[in-house]
Design goal:
The protein contains no helices and 11 strands. It is an all-beta fold. Strands 2, 4, 5, 6, 9, 10 and 11 form a 7-stranded mixed beta sheet that branches. The chain is elongated and about 45 Å long.
Length: 119
């Protein structure tokens, strides 16, 4: 089992910045990748960015050049730095972890944190 606790988010004006954090606990050694997804009102959840245990990153086209995902393995924490925010970035942001245990792949989610960008 992996537990994910998110922090950060809030309200910011367009063009501003926000940072999100996600601390993992539990079966940490089984985590192979972590990431951030978001879900805007009335829309499907979509990938924002992911980072593997080896540090490889992947970003949605809509956030490339503006968002940066990073992780601190010592603190079992993944971060999302969001710059040049746009109103269309408004959504609930969810932390995600993929873990392998006993040959099976498991996906875990945080509780979500609201990010609101005003125009």
């Amino acid at each position: 089992q992996v537990q994910l606790v998110e922090s950060g988010g809030g309200l910011v004006q367009a063009g501003g910045s926000l940072g999100l954090s996600c601390a993992a606990s539990g079966s940490i050694v089984s985590i192979i990748a972590m990431g951030w997804y978001r879900q805007a009102l009335g829309k499907q959840r979509e990938l924002v960015a992911t980072i593997t245990s080896g540090g490889n990153t992947n970003y949605a086209d809509s956030v490339k050049g503006r968002f940066t995902i990073s992780r601190d393995n010592a603190k079992n924490t993944v971060y999302l730095q969001m710059n040049s925010l746009k109103p269309e970035d408004t959504a609930v942001y969810y932390c995600n972890a993929g873990a392998v245990y006993s040959g099976s792949y498991y996906v875990y989610w945080g509780q979500g944190t609201q990010v609101t960008v005003s125009s």
